[in-house]
């Protein structure tokens, strides 16, 4: 019997990347999960990534160390306050301070390098073009451009032995649809965290953009969010 195909998956420990992991496993991939300690303001997402990786018994889970604090430009890597209690129209107007400059480009570059080494033909990423909070590196045209570049920039792409494909199974789904998909695949969302500004014990604030989008998604899906919220 042939070995399962390998895939590199960007795993943040959040709702979206965990759903994508479930999708990748349902398609029979042997998943190599990649997370980052990039100078983010809290480590709870890495704790969640470890929980999720263990629950899905991934082939390997690597946490890469880079420090994006040296460039600044984001509330997630600096001391600027995280926006709270914004209306949906505000979230969709402009690029918010929680955008980390070029983060997905940097993360995908690490994933691409690992895929080239592994001979993996697939990279999974949980970007979403609907509930994406204005981030430019979550759009379909960005992913398409990156995939073209990836196949120009790697040995496997140039030699044609393993052309890289970037899979974005959530790209056109609403948050509610993502939750419905995950539940159909048995995802335990209590393992995940989405909050930009949790308390010291990891309880979600319930007021940042990520929390509001998550809560809206669960409400529209008709499901209770199992995440811990401060004061809840």
Describe the 3D structure:
- The protein has 232 residues and is an alpha/beta fold.
- Helices cover 37% and strands 11% of the residues.
- It has helices at residues 15-26, 44-55, 88-91, 103-118, 140-153, 155-159, 175-184, 209-221, and strands spanning 6-10, 30-37, 60-65, 122-124, 165-167.
- Strands 3-2-1-4-5 form a 5-stranded parallel beta sheet, sandwiched between helices.
- Helix 1 (15-26) crosses helix 7 and helix 7 packs across helix 8 (209-221).
- The termini are far apart.
Reconstruct the topology from this structure:
Blueprint: E1 6-10, H1 15-26, E2 30-37, H2 44-55, E3 60-65, H3 88-91, H4 103-118, E4 122-124, H5 140-153, H6 155-159, E5 165-167, H7 175-184, H8 209-221
Parallel strand pairs: 1-2, 1-4, 2-3, 4-5
What count of domains describes the coordinates?
Answer: 1
Radius of gyration: 17 Å
Helix content: 25-40%
> Helices and strands: which structural class?
alpha/beta
CATH fold description: Rossmann fold
Poorly predicted tracts of residues: none
Looking at the structure, what is the overall shape? globular
Tell me, what is the CATH class?
Alpha Beta
Major beta-sheet overview:
5 strands, parallel
Q: What order do the SSEs take from the amino end to the carboxyl end, as H and E?
A: EHEHEHHEHHEHH
What is the end-to-end distance? Answer: 50 Å
CATH architecture: 3-Layer(aba) Sandwich
**Content of β-strand:** 5-15%
Alpha plus pi helix count: 8
């Amino acid at each position: 019997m042939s070995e399962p195909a390998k895939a590199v998956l960007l795993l943040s420990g959040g709702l979206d990347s965990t759903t994508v992991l479930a999708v990748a496993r349902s398609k029979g991939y042997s998943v190599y999960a990649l997370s980052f300690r990039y100078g983010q303001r809290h480590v709870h997402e890495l704790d969640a990534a470890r929980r999720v990786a263990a629950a899905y018994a991934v082939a390997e889970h690597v946490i890469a160390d880079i420090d994006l604090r040296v460039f600044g430009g984001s509330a997630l890597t600096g001391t600027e306050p995280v926006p709270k209690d914004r209306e949906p129209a505000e979230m969709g107007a402009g690029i918010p301070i929680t955008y980390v400059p070029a983060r997905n480009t940097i993360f995908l570059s690490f994933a691409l390098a690992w895929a080239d080494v592994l001979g993996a033909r697939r990279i999974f990423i949980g970007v979403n073009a609907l509930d994406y909070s204005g981030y430019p590196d979550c759009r379909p045209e960005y992913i398409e451009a990156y995939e073209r570049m990836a196949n120009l920039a790697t040995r496997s792409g140039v030699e044609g032995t393993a052309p890289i494909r970037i899979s974005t199974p959530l790209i056109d789904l609403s948050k509610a649809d993502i939750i419905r998909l995950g539940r159909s695949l048995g995802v335990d969302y209590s393992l995940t965290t989405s909050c930009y500004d949790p308390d010291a014990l990891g309880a979600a604030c319930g007021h940042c953009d990520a929390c509001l989008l998550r809560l809206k998604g669960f409400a529209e899906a008709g499901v209770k969010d199992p995440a811990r919220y401060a004061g809840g």
